[in-house]
Predict the structure.
Amino acid sequence: MADLQDDLHTPAEVDALDGLPLADPFPVEPPALPIDDPDPVDPDAERLERARALLAAHPVADGYSGLPWALRHLPWYDLELGESAVDTDVPRLRQGHVGALFCSLHLPEGLAADRAVAATLEQLDLVRTVIAAHPEGLRLARTAGQVIDARNCGRAAVLLGPATAAALDDSLAILRVLHSLGLRVLTLAGTSWASEAGLTRFGEEVVREMNRLGVLADLSGASEQTVRRALAASKTPVLCTRSAARALRPHPANLPDDLLAELGAAKGLCMVPLTAEQTGPSVRDVADHLDHVRAVAGTQCVGLSGTYDVGTAHPQDLPDASCYPHLVAELLRRGWTETDLSLLTWGNVQRVLRTADFTAKAAQQRREPSTARIADLDG
């Protein structure tokens, strides 16, 4: 019994135990310290990667490049290795996922009229020489099928044009010669038969012969009367190779909403330029124009025109041909779908080229080459 008592606490010991705090039967866990995410998701970086992946499948068909004239002033250049003196070279075309490039044969202001034909031929010859000197990166293309072939071979397809209408010297025979050398786009402006008053009878004959050959009409910079008459006369879709929305920026080459709607109804293509003068100083300004053109003309009637190497300033984040992923990332942020973006970058240009090829093939079976002269129709 004594042993049992020895095992029991004495009153003093019990009193000592009473002074100790009791354990909480439901202890509260201390708040967890924040742990830094070792790999946080950056939505901007994620969109940029999505843009690059999309462009890998649907590359850019760039509607206007001033590269030919820019290269005339360089004593030496290598577009394959990279050329800092211009905005466009093969590495930047690949980085920007540019699959097709329309090379402008436009002439500088002030050039004598009697030099127009020769100067256009000189630029055309220069482009062909440049392509031949860079076979690993560039390939001349005349048709929609050849554009696809170039892309499948890892080359950027180069299409010749737009050229200025003055290069025809009012002769449909010269139009046919230029087409045989690869010309694919002609701008209908700056001549007596495509002026502020619109297309004359000879001008309409030029459009018909262009349809027969498969040469696309470019209406950027043309008068509203010429635009409307060309839309009515052409059997193939027309291009506006460097036109944005005048409702957002009142530049003379930009199109008002009524013309954008007519262009959309005719299944033409408005190619929005990446220039600060026409679209604004930021990539978001360019995206605003693309949103507006899509809303007014339709998803199938909007395209892109880098307008690089023409001596104009470009929006921030879009200084050269490598920067298209940044623009596509901004459009992804705005909710553009992959289908809409694939049409914007590649599909719409392919549609216009295929339609022109098909129409030309059919027209050549029905119509002989035109021998009309301006004196006969407009004299």
